[in-house]
Amino acid sequence: MMANKSLYCLIGDPVSHSISPSIQNYAFRSSCVDAVYFPIKVKFGELGRCIGILRDLDVKGMNVTMPHKMEVIRYIDKLDETAQRIGAVNTIVNDVGTLKGYNTDATGAVEAISEAVGDLKGKKATILGRGGMARAVSFGLEREGVETKMLGRKEMGEESIGREIKDSDIVCNCTPIGMNGEPSPISSTLMRRDLLVVDAAYATRKTELIRNAEIRGCRTITGLQLLVNQGVNAFKLWTGLDPDKDGMMESARLRISENKRRGRRNVYLVGFMGSGKSSAGQLIAKTLKMKFADTDNLISKEFGSTVKNIIEGLGEYEFRMMEKRTIEALSIRRGTVVATGGGSVLNYDNIHRMKESGLIVLLNVSPTTVMERLKGSSSHPLLNGSRGEIDYQKVENLLSARKHYYDIAKDAEIETDGKGVEVVAEEIIREIGGLK
């Protein structure tokens, strides 16, 4: 129907906070690579199914974040030696259908620490955490001749940490503590001026650990530095190109700054024809005192014709280009509930724009319910049979063809079968309240 850009993505939970899309999309643009990168929320227990979907969609590369860095090994085909020894993967390359796992956390962390302290041989490091990031940093440092000690959550009492970092040159927090404003896992009284403090957790502002370390005169490395470093190395694996590292860092900082001052995020309703996006969207907008927009209505108004006439007259490709321009314009707005067309998610740029500016809620619907709700309608040319009526087989086939796209787009999902619009709207409001 239409050509898509190459797809790269981040999989994990949570991912809506991630700065990686800004970093990687800048790298693709500045390197003239026709690709798009966006986050996909993958809950615990859904990883295998997600990897299968991304295989089917021929994803070119992935980043993997918590809680999947170790479990993902079960679902890929090959492991780089470093990733195998660490036992964790944060980067996947699709090599003509073969998914190969790498670990760029180790390389990125060592690069940042080496820049700060020079020769690492003979140094000592205390690593907080025992997860994928902790294992990567520990492995990378040990390979450079550093003596490391990892402390799990149960070992991270003040006395234990104080005993370990007393003789350490480097301390690295590899837990998520601090990403959401939690207190520092290390008391400032334990820090000294000759200590290098590294925090793999990153947020929209410096974590308490980094702020305290700076006050105590310690050298510091932030999670944002580590994120950009590993992102640079991931990009090299995917494309074979050297990206603009300084530009990637500036893009990350700009995105953080925008996030701090952004207004109310948009809510995008996606789903098949007959799922109730427009009726639920209007009710949600009224309840939450937000603006409302319907992409099909906006296109019809601009072109002066119905969607049916546009598709039948100009073809679906031209309609999708209109839809893409409409979603791009809406993504600049704030505080808008947007009911999208059933095929809006077929374009990866659309998904990226929606995720970047808001939350995407999938309204799920069965073929049987679509038939019931659209009975007697002749305004859906992609579903109409030879006599102009809705054709069940067309509904089933088109819904099946779009399912993978709905799955990678959604931040949340609401079942609509057997429910009135008020119930659906209430469930969506509850869901987006939890996501924000």
CATH uppermost class of the largest domain = Alpha Beta
Biggest sheet record: 6 strands, mixed
What's the domain count?
3
Distance between the ends: 34 Å
The structural class is alpha/beta
The CATH superfamily of the largest domain appears as P-loop containing nucleotide triphosphate hydrolases
Which sequence of strands runs across the widest sheet? 2-1-3-5-6-4
If you compute it from the alpha carbons, what radius of gyration comes out, rounded to the nearest whole angstrom?
24 Å
Number of helices: 17
Shape: elongated
Which consecutive residue ranges, at least 5 long each, have pLDDT under 50? none
- Approximately how much helix is present in the residues? 40-55%
Percent of sequence in beta strands: 15-25%
Describe this structure in words.
- The chain is an alpha/beta fold.
- It is 45% helix and 17% strand.
- It folds into three domains: 6-102 and 228-261, Leucine Dehydrogenase, chain A, domain 1 (Rossmann fold); 106-221, Rossmann fold (3-Layer(aba) Sandwich); 266-435, P-loop containing nucleotide triphosphate hydrolases (Rossmann fold, 3-Layer(aba) Sandwich).
- The strands form three sheets. Strands 2-1-3-5-6-4 form a six-stranded mixed β-sheet. Strands 8-7-9-10-11 form a five-stranded parallel β-sheet, sandwiched between helices.
- Strand 7, helix 5 and strand 8 (147-151) form a beta-alpha-beta unit.
- The model has no long low-confidence stretch (mean pLDDT 93).
